[in-house]
Amino acid sequence: MPKRKERPTDIPDQRPTSKLRKKDSTRDRSKHGKRKVPRPASSAEPRQPQKKLNGVSSNWKTLSKSLGISCERKQSMKSSSGGNGRKGAEGKSGGGGGAEKEVWFDDIPLECVDGDLVPKPPEHETRSVSLVAGNDKSAGRYVALDCEMVGTGPGGSFSMVACVCLVNHHGNVLLDTFVAPMDRVTDYRTAISGVSAKDLRGAPEFKSVQKQVSDILEDRILVGHSLQNDLKALLLSHPKRNTRDTSKYRPFKKIAQTRYPSLKKLAKEILGLDIQSREHSPVEDARVAMKLYQLHRKDWEASVKTRLTRREIVERRREMRRREGSTDGGIQKFTPSQTRVLEKPFNVVLHTKD
Question: Strand 142-152 vs strand 56-57: parallel, antiparallel, or unpaired?
């Protein structure tokens, strides 16, 4: 085999210089892989920003000379009184001259300010009315109903009518009577209803009071607050087209800002009256409901006529089907425009007397 030639030791390294530079450059890198940049000596002064001459930059002075524009800057407004200036403004001004005038909004109208900060005027007008009854004592076309309840059953959980009141359009009382209880009373609710045990002694029976109320409501417009509770307690049904419930009238809900406005709140917001401060008075509540209806009768009746057109058609079709002799399973036939007496519903629990 041929012998390998030995490389002389005195020959300098022929490796390319780029590799040497790359190897040497790694020494100048930090442990994060970034190359160290030599910092300037401490004697070198940092670069100074371009100074402004007389408050105006030199570039703007040169441009203004070429355009022929005055380069004098307007001085800020000084406050006439030096004692009202803020300390921060005085410090920034560099001494002398006073503080800058603060901005105030006294001359801006309230309508331009944010609506959340300014109380909005009420959309309705609160009227001061009186509940004094008029001279007309006839029933008329409009009557208002209100009932007071007592509690029966365990803990007074069930309601039973104890007092019934009916007033006419002028606020005169048509009927105001207590009702003898059909069940044992466990809670008279005197603090709210104002009914006590002595008031129900010798009171008329429920059937007779129910008949009187049914006769008065016949072919009349019934006004009241939460009438479904009163009619349910009396076991009566009245046509919806002749019912004006102040708790369901949409403009009243908007005024009270709730879906279920109370009669007390409506009386305060619309009539300016404080009612039900202590015991409830059925006469007063019926008069308040009638007064609320009187103030909005025109708009209310207009909304009823447009809303009940379709409902009237459906009721007439049902009435025609009943008259044709269709079997109704023993349910009593009645005309939708009449007040009827209901049987005792299955969901009402009446406890027997001991």
Answer: unpaired
pLDDT at 247: 95
What integer is the mean pLDDT of 287-312? 85
Sign of torsion over alpha carbons 247, 249, 251, 253? positive
Listed residue (225, 243, 218, 229) closest to 308, CA to CA: 243
Q: Using one digit for the tens of pLDDT, what is the confidence trace for 256-272?
A: 999 999 999 999 999 99
pTM (two decimals): 0.56
- The answer to whether residues 222 and 238 touch, using CB atoms and an 8 Å cutoff, is yes
Name residue 157's amino acid: S
Instruction: Give the containing element (helix H, strand E) for 143.
Output: strand 142-152
Closest CA to 167 of 283, 66, 291: 283
CA angle 92, 95, 97 (to 5 degrees): 100
pLDDT recorded at residue 139: 85
288 or 19: whose pLDDT is higher?
288
What angle is formed at CA 8 by the lines to CA 7 and CA 14, rounded to 5 degrees? 80
Distance CA 32, CA 2 (A): 51
Domains of the chain (ranges, CATH numbers): 142-324 (3.30.420.10)
Mapped onto helix, strand or coil, the DSSP state of residue 326 is coil
Sign of the torsion angle spanned by Cα atoms 292, 295, 301, 304:
negative
DSSP state string for 16-65: -HHHHHHHHHGGGB-TTSPBPPPPPPTTSPPPPPPPEETTEEHHHHHHHH
How is residue 59 written in tokens? 């570039």
pLDDT of residue 313: 75
11-15, 269-273, 337-341: the lowest-pLDDT one: 11-15
